[in-house]
Records
---
Amino acid sequence: MPYHLERAKTDLTPYVLIDEEKGYMKLEGESYHENVFEFFQEIRSWLSTYLKTDFDSFTFDCELKYFNSSTVKILLGMLLEMDAADNSGNITVNWITTRNNMIIIECGEDFEEDLENLTFNLIAN
Amino acid sequence: MFDMMEYHKTLRDHKVTLVYTGPLWAEGIGGVATTLKKRLEYDNLPLETSQEVFSVFVEQMNNMLMYSKESELFTAPDDLHSAAPKGTFILGTLGKAYYIHTGNIMKNDSAELIKNRIDHLNTLDKKELRKFFKEQTRLEDDNPDSKGAGLGFIEIARRISSKIEYDFKPYEDGYTFFTMYVTIGGGAE
């Protein structure tokens, strides 16, 4: 059975959707739980396994409005892992935000500098 | 008895708009965060300023949660007893700028570490802080005790319009009372 996860957003944690069958992951909302590592544990462990498979295409839409510094470390960890995957050329990351959200834009720019293989689109509407 | 009128006057004189004191735990911080967001919406600020205030709030609450050793036993809604760290957070206005003032008790060795970190951050400009933050997020450091290797303080330094002012006062044996004061926005950058 392909993995499927959908978590509603809370004040402190984002909406999460993982649809393995479609090769799709989405984060939306805000992330500033003090124990953000625990929140992302299951997601990260699925991602690590998935990235080792022979997938055709994988899209990650990251549409977070705000996240804390611990979340930055987790997002970066996930992106670097995607970039290092054998199939990294089949991965698209859409970093979606608004034009006035400088915190998110700067963070996306800093991430982009370190990503060599996957397609990273910084979309500021 | 606690002099509520004096307290009220003190808050008014210092243009305090939000005070939180007591146990700190993740879900509790969420509740204060919601109140703070409403407050910032009411002030009708540019997104950048409200995000800066919010970001400093989140990072400093997490810092206090991490380093505050003044735990107290409290009863959670589900009747589970748990020890939570304590701290005090104040948001106020200073002309067009905001200030955030916090206080908590910590171990002397944590105080030493934090003082060194802040002294270093205070020497860096915004561009250098962005670079330093980037370097620190890329460290292979999964030690849960370091919880992000001081990323919270770097993030605070990036978002404020002042330097990080601080005070460390001796508390009881082995403990220090840490006060942090920063200002945000107000076109002082």
---
Amino acid sequence: MLSVNAFSLSLDDKTLISNLSFDIADGHVLSIMGPSGIGKSSLLHYLSGTLPDTLSATGDAFLNGEALHTKPTQQRKVGLLQQMPLLFPHMSIIENLLFAIPTNIDKHNRQQQAQNSLQRLGMPDKANTLPKTLSGGQQARVALLRTLLSQPDYLLLDEPFSKLDPALRREVREFVLTEIRRANIPTLLVTHDPEDATAMEGEYLELGEMK
Amino acid sequence: MPLQKIKWTQWTIALLLAFPIAIGLIGTLLPAFQYFPPLGQDTLSLDPWHSLFEQGEFYASLKLTLITGIGAPILALWFSLSLLAWGYQRPFFRKIETLLSPILAIPHAAIAIGLLFLLSPSGWLVRLFSPWLTGFDRPPNWISVQDPYGASLIFALVIKEMPYLLFVMLGAMKSLQASDTIKACQALGYRRFTLWRKVLIPQLYPIIRLPIFIVIAFSLTVVDLALIIGPNTPSTLAVTLFRWFNDPDLDRRLMASAGAVFLMLVIALVLGGWELAHQIFSQATRPERSNGKRSGLSDNLLRSGVILGLMSLLSGFIALALLPIWSLAKRWRFPDALPAKWTWDNIDRATPLLIELTSNTLLIALSATLLACFIALLMLETLRRSTHYSTNKSSGYNKPHLFDWLIYVPILLPQIGFLFGLHVLLIYLNLNGDLCAIIALHLMYVLPYVYLTLKGPYLAYEENYLQEANRLNRQTWRNYVRIKLAMLKPALFTAFAIGFSVSIAQYLPTLIAGEGRYSTLTTEAVARAASGDRKQVGSMALLQAFFPVMIFWMAQYIPPRWTRWRLALKTSLRRINPRRNKKCSA
């Protein structure tokens, strides 16, 4: 369960978000919508611990009752998926996946996990190919599985579907939802596309312009 | 780079850069005013200046320095602008472009030796036309190299500098949106050379001003090239000073220091004069640019520049081709265009010496360049993270950082004088003649080029990849190497190749820091260039050119193929030993 209490965000003297609170249960997706520049992405940065100094934020965030906002990024175990899939171009698909699997797992199991992921992606033959040979939709799916393989405690999605062409979007959304339920972690999705929100079959919040 | 203490690192590096510069300057300035404790001189006076100005040789040398040091950059700039205007974005020109970096990599001493083989009275050019045209059956009594006017030195400088300027210009063109401009002007009916003259060159010049200044400073102060192919009685000022610095009469050293200070003033004055001339020139041509004429007589200036530039490039290539021919020649009598007999004997005979020279050369070049790459990465990381850079990045305006100023100083200062000033420090530290001292001095000249080559790609790197890697696992140093540096491989390889070739070419730093105890291919080739043993000098110059060209070629060839090779190797290992691999292929 990811909980945010009384979150407020301001840039200089301008308040962007005020007093936002929500809970997300494990395996569920909360979608946050709103026009660009409203501070949606900054909310994600706040939760991942990478908020730039120019913005000031107040409020608390808890993961399963444990305070999140006081921890540095590297201790948060956060998964973040953005528009760019950010697959490392100089590593093969399986190397990209292996890169994310925690090192305390023994080598045999790491290999096994990566192979399983490839099966789920429907591309077991692509293990040794480079990311650039995959289509945009395939890259997005590999990126999601790579993030999940790092065993994050919660997941943040920053418009991960907006760069895909419409035909692919539905397919990738479905895949993402299935994998999130399978991983059973709370997920926050930020988007400006209402279809993304409905496809995630969860609650959604709409942020408006502050007067 | 998960680096702590950014501020601290930044100031430490800045101090380490500034320290040798300051010592070198002080070590030149004080002796110029008679203050030189190692020789028991500790009262300030103007005596060194008086004796400098009383030397007739000083004025003759100064004149030669001004002729060659101003003439060569003007010609190199003229030819390179012409070649660029003529060939830019044309298919055949791409081939010339790919040839540029190997030429750049070749140490100038090797080119100068090749030119000696080409142009001297007994050189290949005269052989080619003898005896059928010239009637010579022995070398004529001409002074075609080391001529008293410095013409052959200017020619050698042009061959070295033109490819460099062309290379810099091609890089600068990327920021000009030139192809749109060319199309727009051609649609208006402007001829190619005219539109370059009126529109593109005026935009290009401000971007390449600093490289031009480097070329001018180099031409005014070069020692090794002038020793090989420059005039010798009198010689250029840098060479004259070099002789005075090494004179057994130690008083001459003080006079030489005064001369070195004077040479710095000359650089400043020439650069100032150059800028002034450029201002006047651009004011004078301003009305002509907008007079609406679609072609003009001045186009011929560019047209002739193309022909002369191509001829210079061609002579450069022939000069280089003569190096292996000489090193393999057994008998090569005068009017023959090619050796009558070939042999490996020259190389065999020289092998022990060549191996020693090569191992010294490679040891120095590899250590200096690796160190330079490491320091450049540290500098760039502090630069990237300094508030200065991040606040400027958003506004799109990049004010030069402290590093950007410091890094140019060693390249712009004359090596002669400056390095002798540093030598005093080495003596105090008891490091004179030490290999570490040679590497340190090389580092000072290698670092600027490595830093400048890496700067663009390093700052343009998509930092998101590294952040993503750090979210996926927490081994930040490992991620820095495996993700960021691995993705910057092409830039790192190129920077390494450039640094390596700069190190190989160094003459004075090796000589002064090493006090002659360590010879490299370059110092030995320069020392023997005049010896007349063309077969041995040819082998040395050939090796001297071989290593940088090979490293450059590898730097271009390997990075794009690296990942493919690595994956192929992994797959073939798995095939050989499938069982073992299941457990440790991670």
